[in-house]
Amino acid sequence: MDVRVCCYVLSVALGLVSAQNSYTIPDVRIEVLQPKGFRVSIPDGPGLALFVFQGNLNRKIDRDAVGSLKGEVLRPTNGRWVYEDANTQLRVGDVINYYVFVSVNRKGYLKDNLSYTVQAVEDRTGSSPKPVGCLPTVTTIRGGNACSGQIIFEDDFSSLKDTWQIEQYIPVSSHPEYPFVSYQRLPDDPVVYVSNGNLHITPKIQQRMSDFTNESIYLGNLDLFSGCTSRAEECYRQASGPDILPPVVSGRITSAGFAFKYGAVTIRAKLPQGDWLYPEILLEPFLKKYGSSNYASGVIKIATALGNRDLRVGLDEYGNKVLYGGPIMDVKCRMQLLSRKLMDNSLWGDDFHEYGLTWTPQYISLSVDGEQWARVDATGGLRTRFPNTCTHLPRMLLEKGTRIAPFDDYFYITLGVAAGGITEFPDDSYTGGGQPKPWRNSGRKGMLSFWEDLPHWGTTWTQPELLVDYIKVVAL
């Protein structure tokens, strides 16, 4: 969304009030970076759901104008709302004139007539020198250094560390997959927790939650503003007609304090089983610069297997026996190209497996239990152990010169469970009992049709959890 439109919409819908009322925008921190760029941030606070920055370099800016320097931040990072411009060259004496806008508890607040004069230029990384004996690596850490072979991120889930942010928001139709869930932090009946050395992410039915008293998913509302981690439009939903509330409550965590470029990721996990469920074991771009469409989002799937024990379109099998991964692309070719089957009639959700992804400037390779099964080159070529009918990667990702998108930015880790949606399950598919998929991916009433089929799919959710034993990222 254009930032000016965003500000106008929020000003009208939420009621723009001055910074002297019930909430005062905290002091804005601006840091100038080397060799170019700058970073703007404010501390996180209760109910804060959006941070917008608008500025001009060495010229004034009006409070209702769009600046040449602009950014919209949808969620905090490591306790602060951070906008980073990586391209503007600043020199001592330059002046940034700017205003900021925030949304707090569904109200808009503006702070304008602000300026910052560049006094000094700081180190872009803010990191200490590399230790003696550190071998060079193509791996980089946002805000830090790495050495070849070094473990740069690791968690055995003996506890839920502050490194992870538990998400709380409602995906909207612009989401690449538009799953039929809301991600929530539930203090009394959590969907995200650690137990017996494993991370548990357990989807549940919204209508059955003990604290859900807002009439029903047909007529009620879902207010997640308190603790919401996304933009305002994803913090509240009012049911209306076929636009019901998301029928599934699930969990999602992100490595908010850690992002990297290039490395080897290993995750030992047990995937969820249950009709129309799927795990989210992802790398997502830190700056979200690729776009939000399914083919251009830049998201990398480390591993996923659809929750249905049996799922077919004609004679083709898509259920929990088939493993998928790699950059997001057209669903039909993804399922034909990047897939690996278990040959002993077992399911990926029957036991723990070690899923690996190696991400280099030249390629992304996928492995399971130490065996590589697919590889995507930076120029779009693909190698796989299995025959396929797609010979290239159609509509794959937003091009950056001659290289596909996930090869030129920092990425963070996401773990979660989703249900339904508009991309993961092929239309005209049916379960092992011959039960057809109850919605169409392009259908206006997809979420409603999914919910009304609860008597069929609800009984299959006997093991809906994603269990994660450990995760490790190693510099190349």
From TrEMBL:
Molecular functions per Gene Ontology: carbohydrate binding; hydrolase activity, hydrolyzing O-glycosyl compounds
Assigned keywords, A-Z: Glycoprotein, Immunity, Innate immunity, Signal
Gene3D superfamilies to which the protein is assigned, alphabetical: 2.60.120.200, Beta-1,3-glucan-recognition protein, N-terminal domain
InterPro entries: Beta-glucanase-like, BGBP_N, BGBP_N_sf, ConA-like_dom_sf, GH16_GRP_C, Glycosyl_Hydrlase_16, WW_dom
Transmembrane segments: none
Pfam families for the chain: CBM39, Glyco_hydro_16
One of the GO BP terms on file: innate immune response
Domain CBM39: 23-123
Signal peptide, first to last residue: 1-19
Domain (GH16): residue spans on this chain: 123-476
Top-level division of the source organism's lineage: Eukaryota
Family: Belongs to the insect beta-1,3-glucan binding protein family.
Name recorded for this polypeptide: Uncharacterized protein
Organism name: Diatraea saccharalis (sugarcane borer)
